[in-house]
User: Fold these one by one.
Assistant:
Number 1:
Amino acid sequence: MLSIIGLLTIAIIVGLLISNKITPIVALVLVPIVAAFVAGFGFAEIGDFFNSGIESVMSVVIMFIFAILFFGLMQDVGLFDPLINKMIALSRGNVIAVAVGTVLIAAVAQLDGSGASTFLITIPALLPLYKRLKMNPYLLLLLVGTSASIMNMLPWAGPLGRTAAVLGVDVTDLWRPLIKVQIIGLLLLVGLAILLAIREKRLIAKRGDFNEELYKEAASPVDNADDEASLKAASLRRPKLLWANAILALAIIGILVWGIVPAGFTFMIGVSLALPLNYPNMKDQMERIKAHAPNALLMAAIILAAGSFLGILNGTLMLDSIATDLVKILPAFVLPYLHLIIGFFGVPFDLLLSTDAYYFALLPIVEQVASGAGVSSLSTAYAMIIGNIIGTFVSPFSPALWLALGLAGLEMGRHIRYSLLIMWGFSIVLLAISVLIGVI
């Protein structure tokens, strides 16, 4: 009976998340409470389950809030602007260089863990260049989306935070083995970008759009400096403090990798130093906090709601019951490879499940079943993360992708047709490499 109630709970939550009719917070909080009552548990017991679940995610919540604030501040002060502008300048006039530059620019832009800001930085800057060189704008979206997905394995981005909440582990510890996967992934993506650019150059020549002058002349991004938003952004830049901010950011990332200080405390210190360094006036400091607070609090609220959901499902033993019954149903030879099978189909899952549904509903079940077959929880998590994350920005459930499509004037259906198989193939290769190097 617990298995049936648990599966219905997860199915209802997944359905609600897919429908986009209510926020993840509502689904993750209310549905498990009703399920616990149906299973015969009282208010006091549910309260204990809630406390247990919240305790398991609190460190992740703190890290998310201050990481988003810190990297938001670094974007505000223009820390990444010189690097991005230099890459754009170097890549102008050559299709292959433009494709490789797109990968690198998107990787830098994604350092704050926000897909929306990555697209806001890359699409307006690079789209005019793609148009001038007659390159397919869907290639731009493919390269930016894949590069951002690889960088999305950062601990302050969504997937690792959700996974850490599910497993009850430190998010920085979860990230360290993935650093080499990110490096390999970016190198592979650069290679893929070169191959796709060669194909693109041939298509341009075949269409008769090839023009030598266009490859010598750079296309300038649209000049909207008089735009109110652009003027506001320019007023926040701190070019004279570039090196001070760079040293601070490198120090924070270094401490994070070192792991001697908890991630949340590290970013808390970073924010506390970055604010007075760049904005000595207290009013300006409060405005910067208010500007980034919505993103920080939204993710924190979702993680807390997930803590409640997982606390109830664990406390009522629904997850244990589901895993036990699945072990009885599934063939024995499948169980040790279940995490790899799910990882293999991770990108297509992005078309069926939202990120929240994948990590908060599917991961706990797979982890329970695979651990019963002797597979470590971390191996299961890495297989599901690496297999799924590449498809983040081909999913209609990604709000940031809709923003990108709007900025570029492109269509979701054509983007999926152009990018899905390439992203899926890339994901499978990265998954296989992760197995070979021992991450999984």
Number 2:
Amino acid sequence: MIVGSIANLDNQFLKKNLYSEQHLCLFDPQMVNLKHPVELEEFSRVEHALVSPDGRLETQVDKLLAKKGFARRVGVASRNFLTIRRLLIGRKLLCIVPKRFAQSEMDNHDLKALPAPIEVPDFDIDLVYRKAFRADEKNLWLRELVSQVIK
């Protein structure tokens, strides 16, 4: 089983939607002074950290900003979310991250999150499993348990 946002799922797998994820701007409030609501100009002026699993430094956020006549500066990128905290603490950076990730980081560290000034599309988090195991009793039990814990 996999829990995540998986595009182009192979036909040997099935998925069950767990929830839809939103995005927030995560930052160190001792280094970055953002007020709610965040203005697009201010958002564009602050250097960004970027999570890019594929290594690209341009995302849908950049396309949305360009449509509004703005651009952001990406100062640093990481291939995964686990390193973002270390990149943000003590630096003048902000990063658009999933809401649940931001909440966890705020609970455990002195970071702050605010809604982005642009509409970043939500994405679905699914439980993905092999079609061959859809009726397997143990697999059914585990899928139900994982679904309950995550919800």
Number 3:
Amino acid sequence: MRYAVALMAGVLAAPALAADALPGPAAKIAAHAVAHPAEKVTVRVPRAARYVGGDRFTLYGVADCEIHVFAEADSQRRVRKLYWIQFENYLPSRPELGYDYAKGNTGITIGGMKVWVRARPVSTTGPVREGSDRAHVLAILKAGGYTVPPEVMNVRMVRMIDDPAGTGKGRHELMVIYSEDLAPTGKTAADLTKDGVPDERWTPLEEPLIDRASKAVTVQRR
């Protein structure tokens, strides 16, 4: 699984897309659940969350990426909580590539499954990398008439679908990013970081945020 994080990418030119043509989204949306038949995974979000939209595309020319977005928002469609669900795997044409989430992430067990977690406060107002998964999520939200807060705190939770041993390595990932508006905490991202890295001031907020995220989103393997 990978707003667990990803809102700080700089602007870079996207590589040319691979020749691999992708069909439309494979997952089925029913009420507050996303069921992916090929990956045999169902992800559920709270009833208060509204489905905004989805997309499937070739990410940076190397990966099959499918995204589905749910949001809890006010009457003006200002997002208070965001649920970003992403299925991603490297294309067959790139057999040499693989993910390794054991580096730079914390491994915890959620619902009996090994999940790799990273949480942090971030600004959403920075430049967006062209062709990135974040760019696609923001486009989905914009098309739905939603706006995101200028600063959020989020948790990225990644489950490697083809990694039954829980090593954090593989080629098929399910990423769920759970995000909350940072403003209600009375803090800013600058209050909680040093040189862009979360410090000890972030610690009291981090564990409760991860706990809320792990309870808000459930993943079921079939």
